[in-house]
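Margin note from the TA: students keep mixing up input and output lines. Inputs are the sequences; the output is the structure of the whole complex. Example:
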Amino acid sequence: MVQIPNQQPAPRSVPTSADVARLAGVSRATVSYVLNNTSAVRISEPTRRRVHEAARELGYVPHAAARSLRAGHSRMVLMPTSEIPMGPLFSRFFNELQWALSRLDYTVVQYASLGLTGEDAARAWAELRPVAVLAPDTSALGPRGVTVLKRSGAKAVFTLGPHRVEGAHALLMDGRRVGEAAALHLLSRGRRRIGAIVPEEPGLELFSRPRVEGLRAAVDAAHLAGASVMELPLAHEEGSAARLAARWRSLGLDGVFAYNDEYAMLLMRALQDEGIAIPEDTAVIGSDDLMLGRLLRPRLSTVRIELPSGRGLAALVDRVVRDPGGEPEAHDVLGAEAVHRESS
Amino acid sequence: MVQIPNQQPAPRSVPTSADVARLAGVSRATVSYVLNNTSAVRISEPTRRRVHEAARELGYVPHAAARSLRAGHSRMVLMPTSEIPMGPLFSRFFNELQWALSRLDYTVVQYASLGLTGEDAARAWAELRPVAVLAPDTSALGPRGVTVLKRSGAKAVFTLGPHRVEGAHALLMDGRRVGEAAALHLLSRGRRRIGAIVPEEPGLELFSRPRVEGLRAAVDAAHLAGASVMELPLAHEEGSAARLAARWRSLGLDGVFAYNDEYAMLLMRALQDEGIAIPEDTAVIGSDDLMLGRLLRPRLSTVRIELPSGRGLAALVDRVVRDPGGEPEAHDVLGAEAVHRESS
DNA sequence: TTGAAAGCGATACCAG
DNA sequence: CTGGTATCGCTTTCAA
């Protein structure tokens, strides 16, 4: 066999399995068998070595698109990303889920379909022929979108968020639970006239609305005399908080649910600067149990959110992929529990 | 040649362009022409309509893998994600970059190659045959990894992080700038014995090390009598901060750089609980200019980090993709500027 | 204006 | 044990 010793800028084109075959002096089929460790066929050890060596020498890397085209399916799990950045809570959850899925031999891919929603987004995703799609509710994937994805071969379509979508499995993250927990806590602390901070940032509405709804529903359901809920828009910015604080006394509120701990911090600071005593004048409760809440004075009461383990959800996704026949299920995956500290 | 009678049991198969062609009563070529608006060929209006209708009726979505296989190239930009979640600063930067790239008609994909680093990671990425790769430094892509990617057809390989990698373009985010800015600020405020908080969380070392190095270098370079730097490990957790605060007086420090605003908040709280006056006894400066710093009392001095516009970087990536010949360039993309508030 | 056919890269069946 | 070859879905000449 003639070895060409030159280390020159190698063939400028990308090496294919045919190149490996040529260099190893075998057929493309044999290359495929060797590199995939196909157990149905036994290849002699010397041949294996020659193939591996040739592959290494050429820097051969298989072509995923060609492979999955031939195979007729892929193991790609598509997770469309929304433009609004998720907090540490969801980041951790997503990381865990990703890790667990890759342990199950799925290729997890986040695809930024910026600007597209609904059916358009679904079509863009479908072009990649993923075996499963985990779509955040923010993508507004409708029933039609689900159909598009399924027709394109997706075995499992999950939505993550507060709403169900017809035809898709749902990992229901019902923000109303958060509002409910906050409401019950404030009511049990004797508060009746309750404010509900609503972030003015546009993307957050999808999350804040259910929380406020849950708060309102729980307050109404308590049937307590004089109990009421007042929505208070607030931008994540000091001036906005100061303006709200300036008219705080006139609102006559004795408790407030602040959407999350960051908005709670913002509000609490402004109220304190205004001379309003917390929790005496107004009780404050946040959400998400961020580290910063424990560092505030008074320490911030909060709603701790429990998300399920990524392992379990990965197994669920895997189950649906392997047996796509079943009816779409909805899984309640968000637990909420009030944590009492000093601000309420 | 014997035609095998076509297999009817093809219940819910994914529609292909052939199916569209059959339904529309035209050839696959015509379908391709119509759906891609190929300008080189003119198709009659009635035919166009029939094709579009058939495509819609079948829910046809083109197969990206087949397309790019045939085309011999794709417009996929791969951004491997690291497991450590990025803060709001980088999230925004990434979102902007993604958006800008998709405006340039690239398909941005984040791929979680969890657990893989260096050449192994590069091979996994190369299987997708991306036209460009933007790899965070955390992936430890070495020069060999860069070679693997280029051989697989990647026209542009960029690293994002504190280090350069041979053969790749670099978006240098030199954390030393942050430490330098902090050092100069503290020194100018008359502080000499300076502490440097080093997060104990493993993933953060890659970011904290350069910051501390920059701090140390700037303090040394100032040649001031008695100026010194002491590294202080701290976990992102109250107990750790309390322990550090308990021995604070014995350390004899009059200034401290706290890695970022969150650690600064953690430390400041613990110091205040210990009765240490800020900034009188010890000046504190954080980094990243998070909202929370402005809400603390005293207001937290910080280092504001400037990241370049996503638009400009997207254009840069595009330029390199179109003209891959040039020498790899390093772009310093991180600006740091101390912001004086009340804690220093 | 439309159709037939080659071929992108990898794999799996069937011969040899 | 190894080599030809058909095939996946799509684009793109080249002919008709």
